[in-house]
Every structure is written in C-alpha cells, then in structure tokens.
Amino acid sequence: MKIGFNEATALKCEGQSLMADLEMCEKYGFDYFEMRFDCLAEYMKEHTLEELADWFKNHNIKPWAYNTLEFFNMLDPFQTMATDWHLDWIKEVCEAIGMKMLIAVPSFNVGLDKTNAEIKAEMVERLRYMAEKMGPEIRISLEFCGVPTCSVNQFGTAYEIVKEVDLPNVGVTLDTFHFHEMGSKLEDLRKADPKKIFVYHLNDCEDLPIGSCGDDKRLWPGEGVVDHDGICAALNEIGFDGVCTIEEFRPEYYAMNHEENIKKAAEVTKAFVAKYYNK
Ligand code: ZN
To answer: Taking ligand 1, which is a single-atom ion, which protein residues have CB atoms under 5 Å away?
Structure first.
C-alpha cells in the first residue's frame, strides 16, 4: 500500500508552507500528497499553478487529493453559488497539476427538523451535480465526520449515499478518527466495495467519551483507542488497496520542528502499513 501525507499534520509548525511540506514529504519518502485549500491559497499569492505543475514533474511525490470542499449540502442560494465558484477553482487546480481527487465534507448543524432521509436524498442530488460539474476524470470522496452535529457522521450512512449516487467518480473517505468517534460499524466496512473507498486517513484518538473529541485529540496511529486491528482486518478482507494518508491536527505535533513532524509522520505511516498491509 502506498503512503500519503495530508497537510493538516504539520499545518501550524513553524516554517510550514505548501512548498516546505512538499520538499520534506519528498525527502522522507511519501508517495502521495493531500493539499490543503488554505496552503494552496497562500502559495498562489506568489506563485502560479504552472510552477506547481513543474515542481511535481521533477519530483517523485504525486498530488493525491484537494482537501477540502467543506460543507456542500443543505446550502442556501448564496452558499450554493460560492460552492460553484470553489468547484470551478478546484477543477482548474486538478487539471493543471494532474490531481484526480476532491475530498468533500458534509455540512454541520443543518437543523434539527431535517430527517436522515431528507439529508440523504438532498446529498445524493448534490453529489450527482458536483460529479457532473467536475467531469469523469476527477473523483469526489465524501468524508463523513465523527461529530454529532455533522449531517453525515457514520461510515454506513456515507456509504449508502455514494451507493445510491451510483457514479464511478463518487466514493467515500474512511478517516479512522471519524470512524471511531461516532461508532461507525466494522460490519458496514466489511460490506463495502473496496473500489468505493477513495481516501483512507490514518490517525488515532485519545480515550475520551465517544463523540466528544475535537480534531486536536488525534494521535499518531497506534497510540490511542481506534480499533485499527478491526479496521485493517476488514479492509484486507474486502481487498482494499489504496493510499494510506496520515492526517493529524494535534497542537503537540505542531510544536514540533517542521522537519521532525514530517519525519515522524513518515516513520509511523510506514510502520503502520508494514504491520497491517505490506507483509
Ligand atoms: Zn480526514
């Protein structure tokens, strides 16, 4: 299994930037890179997409996903218009640098009057619209969040939605922190088509009451209570073979030196895939 780096991991380290992350990820052997929208926006103040495309042409690491289009369902008309602009921009970025994935996060606090059936039906329509807009070359990966107020907060629900969308370029993100945080079920994972799991975010979680953790409670894989044995067994059982991408948001890791952070991220990700997948 290949390994990836998500820019959230070193986001607040001193000296962090899109280019600093890329250079370090290349140095420490990551295969793929998940680019954050805010890091890219900062880069664009002084650079062009052509420069970024050139950089990738001359290095081994490849762009994996645009992270993220946040909050794309149950929007008001103004938010819908803003999202359309964002999608146009993402498409331009993807085409310029050869990136083929967009991670999309569902809206939070959509109102207590919205039933699951209503949320699902509306999201199916939204994802079909977005998939059409992005075109068949760009995949959209729905990332449910393990937070009580997120409109889609379990793997099973996200999977049902993409199944109903039924398009080759719409799938799900499996983030192990989010999977743990709202008690997603291993049996749902075991029933999934591995080709529908587009993105795999690796991390761990402190041992706190379920659903109570913010992203700052994420830990390096193996240091917390996420059931990686169970998740990996299920993924191996269904024959999943994707990219395992480390994604942390922990203040203690941001206090690390930028290079030390990425070096450590590479070490734990390589050790993780060696233990569970690349035997
Ligand atoms: Zn994630």
So the answer is: 175, 201, 247
Q: Tens of pLDDT along the chain (279 residues)?
A: 999 999 999 999 999 999 999 999 999 999 999 999 999 999 999 999 999 999 999 999 999 999 999 999 999 999 999 999 999 999 999 999 999 999 999 999 998 889 999 999 999 999 999 999 999 999 999 999 999 999 999 999 999 999 999 999 999 999 999 999 999 999 999 999 999 999 999 999 999 999 999 999 999 999 999 999 999 999 999 999 999 999 999 999 999 999 999 999 999 999 999 999 987
Per-residue H/E/C for 69-121: EECCCCCCHHHHHHHHHHHHHHHHHHHHHCCCEEEEECCECCCCCCCHHHHHH
Helix (H) or strand (E) holding 66: strand 62-70
pTM above 0.85, yes or no: yes
Going from the Cα of 199 to the center of ligand 1, the distance in angstroms, rounded, reads 8
The rounded Å distance from CA 120 to ligand 1 centre is 21
CA 105 to ligand 1 centroid distance, Å: 9
Distance between CA atoms of 211 and 217, rounded to whole angstroms? Answer: 11
Q: Who's near 235: CB < 8 A, 6+ residues apart?
A: 189, 194, 197, 200
Q: Specify the length of the chain in residues.
A: 279
Residue 106 CB: number of other CB atoms within 10 A?
A: 25
Q: How far is the CA of 136 from the centre of ligand 1 (A)?
A: 23
Cα 143 to ligand 1 centre (Å): 7
